């Protein structure tokens, strides 16, 4: 999928969502109008990130756009329960993840897995802009430098709980706190799963990294030998 498709799909999704929020049913009084304006200002800035995650989940531009729109409309409906000052991005990701899970279950399709089956180079690269380079882990750095097929195959071998922690932190660029909110788990649990997942991923990527001259931190001296 060309990178240029991303803003086109986002533009259509944003326009459709805005049109729905502007409908008489959604703006019955000044309070609703103020809520709509505040939501649009606060939440729509994350539309591109939501779309990137939706593409990795659905692997289809139209489905991804629908998922983002459904997510934003559900988030708007529940916006009164959102505690201002807390992490809005993580809250939106959690709504989107739950929407995806529920939609696939209703359609009797496979349950949610880390959306890596058709992870493309442009999708991995897109996540880079949301991950601070200075704080990027060795695994995140390897993910951004290695071919998507190698990364995908390695990640799919990591058990689900650990894979999801690696996915949200090292692919999507979420913080520990954000990942904990999305996964609805304590931060300590997320950190433990992330540590284990990164260790497993590091081992899986070590051979390829060594062949390509890419340093993966944490490898043993034995692993570094040709």
Automatic annotation (TrEMBL):
Species lineage: Bacteria, Bacillati, Actinomycetota, Actinomycetes, Micrococcales
Protein name: RNA polymerase ECF family sigma subunit
Organism: Agrococcus jenensis
Record family assignment: Belongs to the sigma-70 factor family. ECF subfamily.
UniProt entry tagged with the keyword S-adenosyl-L-methionine: no
Origin: domain of life: Bacteria
Keyword terms: Sigma factor, Transcription, Transcription regulation
Keyword Membrane recorded: no
Domain RNA polymerase sigma-70 region, first and last residues per copy: 44-110
Domain RNA polymerase sigma factor 70 region 4 type: 150-201
Single GO BP term: DNA-templated transcription initiation
GO molecular function, one term: sigma factor activity
Pfam assignment, any one: Sigma70_r4_2
């Amino acid at each position: 999928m060309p990178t240029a498709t991303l803003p086109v799909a986002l533009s259509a999704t944003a326009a459709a969502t805005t049109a729905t929020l502007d409908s008489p049913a959604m703006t019955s009084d000044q309070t609703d109008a103020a809520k709509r304006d505040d939501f649009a200002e606060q939440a729509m800035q994350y539309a591109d990130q939501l779309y990137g995650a939706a593409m990795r989940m659905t692997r289809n531009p139209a489905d991804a756009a629908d998922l983002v729109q459904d997510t934003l409309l559900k988030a708007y409906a529940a916006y009164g329960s959102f505690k201002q000052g807390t992490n809005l991005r993580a809250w939106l990701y959690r709504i989107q993840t739950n929407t995806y899970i529920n939609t696939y279950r209703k359609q009797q399709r496979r349950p949610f897995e880390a959306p890596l089956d058709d992870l493309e180079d442009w999708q991995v690269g897109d996540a880079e802009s949301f991950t601070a380079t200075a704080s990027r882990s060795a695994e995140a750095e390897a993910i951004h430098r290695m071919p998507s097929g190698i990364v995908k195959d390695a990640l799919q071998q990591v058990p689900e709980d650990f894979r999801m922690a690696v996915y949200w932190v090292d692919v999507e660029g979420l913080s520990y706190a954000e990942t904990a909110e999305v996964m609805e788990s304590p931060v300590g649990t997320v950190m433990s799963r992330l540590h284990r997942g990164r260790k497993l991923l590091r081992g899986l990527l070590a051979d390829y990294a060594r062949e390509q001259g890419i340093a993966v931190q944490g490898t043993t001296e034995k692993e570094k030998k040709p």
